[in-house]
Structures are given as structure tokens and as C-alpha cells.
Amino acid sequence: xxxxxxxxxxxDIRALSGVGPKLEKLIAxxxxxxxxxxxxxxxVGVVDRSYRPKLSAAEAGRIATVAVSVLDHLPPRIKSQxxxxxxxxxxxxxxxxxxxxxxxYLMEVLPLRAQRLVSGKIERFQxxxxxxxxxxxxxxxxxxxxxxxxYALTEGLAAKSLSRAIKGALERVPSMAEWQDPAFLKQRGxxxxxxxxxxxxxxxxxxxxxxxxxxxxxLAYDELLANQLALTLIRARLKEVGGRALxxxxxxxxxxxxxxxxxxxxxxxxxxxxxxxxxxxxxxxLRLLQGDVGSGKTIVAFLALTRAVEAGLQGAFMAPTEIxxxxxxxxxxxxxxxxxxxxxxLTGREKGASREATLxxxxxxxxxxxIGTHALFSEDVGFRDLGLAVVDEQxxxxxxxxxxxxxxxxxPADVLVMTATPIPRTLALTAFGDMDVSKITGRPPxxxxxxxxxxxxxxxDDLIAHLAxxxxxxQRAYWVCPLVExxxxxxxxxxxxxxxxxxxxxxxxxxxxxxxxxxxxxDAAMAALKSGEIQLLVATTVIEVGVDVPEATIMVVEHxxxxxLSQLHQLRGRVGRGTGKxxxxxxxxxxxxxxxxxxLAAMRDTDDGFIIAEMDLKLRxxxxxxxxxxxxxEELRLADPVAHAELLGIAxxxxxxxxxxxxxxxxxxxxxxxxxxxxxxxxxxxRYLRAG
Length: 692
Ligand code: ADP
Ligand code: MG
Fold this sequence. Notes:
By secondary structure, the protein is α/β, with parallel strands linked by helices.
């Protein structure tokens, strides 16, 4: 249960005086529904009201405060026009402009000939000075805040209303016992939580908004520590409650390997050895398998699942899309057959009687390995005894879903998470807590590097001529269509148009695959490319993750400048999978800015997924690299894993140390840390504490 000291902060924002239902909705939209959301809604700017020029010398566009006297009122002649009040100091005249004005109110605050202090943004229109809706209208002896924080707004929400609400919320912050180590605070020059919070909401310069100020660092550290404590607790709990040694005699494994048309690489063998050692251990496996696109993770996962089957248990293999499930099923079925392993699929497509039959067989243990999409999460999916769950290309799954799968089966299963987006360590910590990591280094032999070229859309005709030649020679290609944000409909229209154009220009059979298609249609299109029935596949990014058509050798990405580097790397990984020489053409439209140029040049110059991911992280931030949900970012409001990377490392070590000394958080500091966990909404982690 949440400690009572936090009750005021977890009240609805309606609890604030002056916040009615309408305002509540708007504020909730930008910050969140509770007071605690308001105190963590950090300013994005600062207004400085110290500029007090003579009107004649006032610079347009600046916030200025001027002492003026009221000359006259100019009510609008038609309603749609603004109400104007002319004022002056001894140097010039200025118009105060009010839209949808209340004349009576204006007469009251700006009576004729009165002296007033007005503060707001000054604009100049054809030599006329104007100030629209002054922020302040005061008597000459009125006092103005010298500096004011600026918060992100939404339409209909007035800056003043939000500021007032945040101020109100800050006043309700209780005084809480310090949860951080005093020596650490001293060494860092960090103030107590309440003081730091007040400081970040009272910036006086742009520099005060930087993530590196002591106040912002202090708060970021609080959040990171809560995050790391929670992840460490969850991990400890997961390891502790699960855990059984899975042994196999290696017979099925040998049969699978014998059925492979290739030899495993050293990188694959090393990763598999690490995974098997983990599975054989008494504690539960929580392992992340990282391997660049095309490094051959699928077969490693399947061999791990084979080990679970050898141990008499079942396996689950989860992929993010229907296409991938079908693809895995197609490649793995022959291997499973060779080793006498019963493999089945479960996706949203299985319905009615066939679904019933699958579920029954699964519960009876007649299915050894179940491959599926999100459908594996359904309530009614029950294994007889799940030994290992593999989550492939996990970046489409959130942390929560990963947990859910772990809860399947009679006993918690070992978990292997696979990712092709190489995840820098800092990010891995927030996204996965502290999983063990295996890496597949190197690629299967015989692969030739993909030649990458960056060209402008002005050369589209050249590109098409080149493509026509290659296709005439029997090659196969992808053409990925521009990403138009927020509108799948527009994306689709663009893709369809492109397909028609290419069909006409190239004279080959062209397929189209997009997110709005039914899964079966999508599979059919992919299969058509694989069989050669079509030579060119125009696609929205549904092909991004994991799709394997070794025969495809050309990848064109249109509007490449709109894609993230990791995404481009993934897309490029769709070619160069067979032995043919492959190329990737990054087509850009318009003129490229410096950053965009550098990004595309980097794609051309390196093929190392890790370098690309690090660069992407620096350029775009974690939410964009992994997806907000998956990166664990949605949980972080004050900390930024890039700017606060050093603090993240410390918080990680700190969390382990704290829990090693005080596993139940029972000490005085432990009690304070419980409050910290609740403050940052990690109630789930505290529950693990109680249960443990
Ligand atoms: P990813 O790591 O991107 O998931 P996949 O597992 O899909 O990669 O493997 C990519 C391709 O490489 C597949 O066609 C697979 O059959 C092939 N492959 C995997 N391992 C090897 C190997 N050791 N030698 C040759 N080809 C391999
Ligand atoms: Mg894969």
C-alpha cells in the first residue's frame, strides 16, 4: 500500500483550487492526472522579465516590461476585430491588443489616464508597437516575478493556468526522509529532494534547463535509482521463483544439426554454449541474445528450444508479426521433423475448431514447441509444462508483455530474449534491467557485404534504368516506401502509387505488401517474392523485422532521410542474405541538412550494427531507437539515459548494493527507499518485496 505521506501527491489534480473538469482534462493531457505528474512536469523554457526598455527603444519579439499611461480605448467596430487600448510612455505609443475582449473588464484594469505596468511580448507592425494579451497588467508599485518557468502546453491550455496548478502541486510536496546516501549527496553537491524540485521549477537562465544542473541531476538520480531498484527486485524475484536445471542428452540436438544445410559458425556455437549452460543451472535463465541482422539467431534459439524438449518440457517461440511466425514455421518444420519434435503455430489467424485443437494438444503436451505472435499471451493458452520461452525481435514487445509470457506454464520458464537492434549498455539497463547477455559475433560464411549508395531523387530515372537491368538479369528486389508519419492511409496511397509506377516502368511483376493487408495476403506476397513469381516487392515497413528471402539482392529505401539509422540497418539486413552480391540504395528527396547527410553517409560507410545503434542513440535518443514502450523510456520522466548515462551506471551499482545489504528494505534508509519507489510509481516492485 502506498505510504500515507504520499497521499497528497497522488490526489487528482482536481484537488487543486481553481481546477475544474475542463482545466483538469487539459492539464492531464500535458502532464498527467495526478499532482505527482505536475511536480515532475519540468519546465522547457524560462521567461526573463528583467528587460525594461523605453518604448521607443524596445526590441521586437522580446518580453518587455514597461511603465505606461493609458491614452484611449478603441473598441472594435466589427466583432471579429480585436479591442485595442493605446498606451504610452514618454518616448512612444503602443497598442495593447485583445481578441474576444470583455470591454468592461478592460475598462476596469486599464482606466483612462491611469499609470500601469504591463509585461508581455512586444511586436512591431509597420512601425506600430503592439503587445497582444499582456501577461501582466499591474499598478506601478506592483511586483512581477523576475523569472518564470515555461511549460509545454496544449491547445486551449493557458500558460498561467498550468503554471498556477504546478505551483499548487509543488506546495503540497511533503517533507520526506532522505532516501539517498548523504555522503553521495555531499560529494555531488546535490540538495535534498524538495529543494532540488523547487530549483528545477525556478529557472532563471536557459542554462538552468540543462540536464546537467545539480538539481536536474539529483532528480534524475532519484528516478534512475527507483528504476534500477525496481528492475533489480523484479529480476531477483524472477530468478528466485523459477529455476530448475534443464538437461538433455543431446540426441535431438544432434539430429537437428545434422539436418542443417550449413555448419554453425563459431559465434553461434559460443552463444548456444552460454545459453545451454544457463539452462542447465539451478537458477532461472534471463538472457538477452544480441546478434546483428542476419547473424543467424533463429537456429540458435531453436537449438535452445530443442534442449528444453530433450529435458521433457515445452518451448514457446514468440515473434512480433504473422509473417515472421509463418517464416519461422517454414524453416523450422523440416528441422523439427528430423528430430521428432512436434511444432505448431498459434496466431490471431487460428480460430474456432483448429485453435481449440491446438490448445488442447498444447495442454496435453502433444505439442513440443509453439510458435506464435501476441496470441500466445491469450488467457486460454496453457502449456503442460513450459521450460523455455524465446522472444524474437523483442523490440515490438513491451516490458509488461515479456513478463506475462514468463508467467505461463506451471512453473516460470527460462527466458531468452533476442534482438537484432544492438542495444547500447546504458539503454539495455533501463529496458531490460540486468539480463545476462550473449552476443553472436560474425556472420555466416559466404556473405558479401552489401554495397550501399546514397542518391538524390533527381536521379530516380537512372535508378529505375539500373533496376530494370538487374531485374532483367533475374535479380529480386525490395522497394520500401516513404514513411509518412501518423497516417497509415497516406503511406498506403504512396506505396500503391509507387507500385503502379514501377510496374509500368520496369515491365516485371510487382507485388505490394503493407500493414493494412490481411496476414494471409501479406504472407502470399512474401512467398511470391521468395518463389520468384514476383521480382519486385513494394512495401511499407512491415518487412522491417526479420524477414528472410535470401534470393533478394536489391533494397531501395525511398525517403531514406526519414528513417532512423537502426531502421535503415534493419532494412538493409533484408538483403545480402544469400550468396549473391547485394546492394542497398538510399534514395532521398529534397535537399539534405547537415545531420541528415552525415547520417546517410554513416550508413554508407559502416555495416556494424553496434556503431550504428550508438550513433542513433546519440542523434535521436532512446525512445526513437527502441520505441518508447520497449526502451522503458515511458517510465522515465526526469532522467535521460544519454545525458545521465553516468548516473545510470551508478544507480545500477547502488541498487544492487542496497538490496544486498537490505534485501527487504527494512532499515531506516530502506523505509525511505520504499517511499521513493512509490513516488515513482514502482508499486509492482514493492509487491515483490512483500512477497519475498
Ligand atoms: P537473424 O539473426 O537476423 O534472425 P536468421 O536467423 O534469420 O538471422 O538467419 C539469416 C539467414 O542465415 C537464414 O537464411 C539462415 O538460414 C542463415 N544461416 C544461419 N546460420 C547460418 C550458418 N551458420 N551458415 C550459413 N547460413 C546460416
Ligand atoms: Mg531473426
